[in-house]
Amino acid sequence: MATDNTINAGASSKIDQEMDDRGPSELQLAWRELLKRPPALFGVFVIITAILWALVPGLFSPHDPLLQDLERYLKPPGFVDAAGNTYWLGTDQLGRDIVSRIIWGSRVSLSVGFAAVFVSGSIGIGLGLIAGYFGGKVDAVISRIVDAVLAIPFVLLAISIIAILGASLQNIVLAIALRTWTVYTRVVRGEVFALKESDMVTAARASGCGTLRIMLIYLLPNAFSSCIVVATIYLGRMIIIESSFSFLGMGVPPPTPTWGGMLAEGRGFLDTAWWLTLFPGVALTVTVLGVNLLGDWLRDVLDPRMKRLDD
Predict the structure, then answer these.
(1) Which domains does the chain have, with CATH numbers?
(2) Reduced to 3 states, what is the DSSP secondary structure of residue 70?
(3) H-type helices in 248-304, by residue range?
(4) Between β-strands 86-87 and 79-80, what pairing exists: parallel, antiparallel or unpaired?
(5) In the beta sheet, which residues pair with residue 79?
(6) Which residues does 42 contact at the CB level (< 8 Å), separation at least 6?
(7) Nearest of 252, 280, 283, 256 to residue 267 by alpha carbon
(8) What is the DSSP letter of 306?
(9) How many Cα atoms occupy the beta-carbon half-sphere of 86 within 13 Å?
(10) Closest by alpha carbon to 172, among 293, 196, 180, 276?
(11) Which of 73, 53, 65 is nearest to 97 (CA)?
């Protein structure tokens, strides 16, 4: 019995030694890199907060974002009503709580952002794989389609789609996705061009793997890290585009709160009620900044070739 225990202990020590020799895993290295990046940590905190706001806004919202009361007309930040309710960021021209509207407005911005990234990424990655793998005439056709889409002014395309189909969450996502998929196509096309002649793909062809299997198993995973970086960086751009549409009156119709809509409503009160535009603008700016900081960190972690010189 003692001999068995000695053997087991020796085997465990040998395994531990082998794990130590291998060093930390990629996940551990990424976590250590994140801890050394305060801006990236700030980005993670901002994204998690915004996602929680969007998923369960009622948990954080102190008041009903649609509740109107003209007795609370344009009250400044810190206003306390007769019932003892505090409006930390003030109220708007209809007496609605600014804090609650900002929290509920995050749902629209993040929904459009994530949905547009998913739709445009799915289209762009698929076409990029096809163009990069087959090349020749297939690549030429897809590349000319990309050039044609890029030649159309984005604002004109978006206004046309929304004018024809109407202002709604789905149509905003469609308008954004129909233009931004080109970025993913170009990125994936370039990655696949570099990978399709590698020894890995050549061995897969020699072993009898079909085209679809090679594209999905061997090419897509190797190009996916670049797609994640692009998606993270473009998420902030999607949020800004949605806010711009809402500001111009082409976004989700009222009374649904949106950050862009709040900015549009407050522009007529800049000289008397500055808080109507300041706080939604801060929420929008901080969220996009957090997304961009997180994207910078993911770029350095997932694509060492793009690592900044000062790291």
Answers:
(1) 27-306 (1.10.3720.10)
(2) helix
(3) 259-266, 275-302
(4) antiparallel
(5) 87
(6) 290, 293
(7) 280
(8) G
(9) 3
(10) 180
(11) 65
pTM recorded for the entire structure:
0.84
Determine the Cα–Cα distance for residues 192 and 197; give it in Å rounded to an integer. Answer: 9
Helix, strand, coil fractions of the chain, as percent rounded to 5: 75, 0, 25
3-class DSSP assignment, residue 91: strand
Specify the amino acid at residue 132. G
Model confidence band, residue 208 (pLDDT cutoffs 50, 70, 90) = confident
Residue pair 172/242 in contact by the 8 Å Cβ criterion: yes
Selection from 266, 273, 232 nearest residue 246 by Cα: 266
pLDDT tens, position by position, 238-297: 999 999 989 988 888 888 999 999 999 999 898 899 999 999 999 999 999 999 998 888
Q: What three-state secondary structure class fits 80?
A: strand
3 state SS for 216-254: HHHHHHHHHHHHHHHHHHHHHHHHHHHHHHHHCCCCCCC
Nearest Cα to Cα of residue 233 among 182, 283, 297: 297
> What is the reported pLDDT for 7?
45
Other CB atoms within a 10 A radius of the CB of residue 302 amount to 16
Q: Are 46 and 286 in contact (CB under 8 A)?
A: yes
* 141: its two tokens: 């056709």
Which two three-digit tokens encode residue 252?
Answer: 């989700």
Amino acid code (one letter) for 82:
A
Q: Provide the percentage of residues in the chain whose pLDDT is more than 70.
A: 87
The 3-state DSSP class for residue 297 equals helix
Q: In this structure, how many other beta carbons lie within 10 angstroms of the beta carbon of residue 203?
A: 11
